């Protein structure tokens, strides 16, 4: 994935990322079968797809962590204000 693709993924919601992740997993499985059957000429295709899956998973983790931190910050701000 290029940097532009990653920045585009950052703007997507978690639901969209989950759908994309499922598609990539199916694509990875299909490419593995094609490589083993000898029909796929690009042998790095499976590793590139796995890398994309890792990037998407990392972005989802970052989004979840950011969402968990936001309520904690609001609670801390309330304590400081009082």
From TrEMBL:
InterPro entries, per the entry: Ribosomal_uL29, Ribosomal_uL29_CS, Ribosomal_uL29_sf
A Pfam cross-reference name: Ribosomal_L29
Gene3D superfamilies noted in UniProt: 1.10.287.310
Lineage: superkingdom: Bacteria
GO cellular component: ribonucleoprotein complex; ribosome
Keywords per UniProt: Ribonucleoprotein, Ribosomal protein
One GO molecular-function entry: structural constituent of ribosome
Family: Belongs to the universal ribosomal protein uL29 family.
Name the record gives this protein: Large ribosomal subunit protein uL29
Chain's gene name: rpmC
């Amino acid at each position: 994935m290029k940097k532009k693709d990653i920045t585009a993924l950052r703007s997507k919601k978690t639901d969209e990322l989950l759908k994309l992740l499922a598609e990539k997993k199916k694509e990875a499985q299909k490419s593995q079968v094609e490589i083993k059957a000898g029909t796929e000429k690009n042998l790095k295709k499976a590793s590139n797809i796995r890398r994309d899956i890792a990037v998407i998973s990392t972005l989802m983790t970052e989004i979840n962590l950011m969402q968990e931190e936001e309520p904690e910050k609001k609670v801390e701000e309330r304590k400081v204000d009082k």
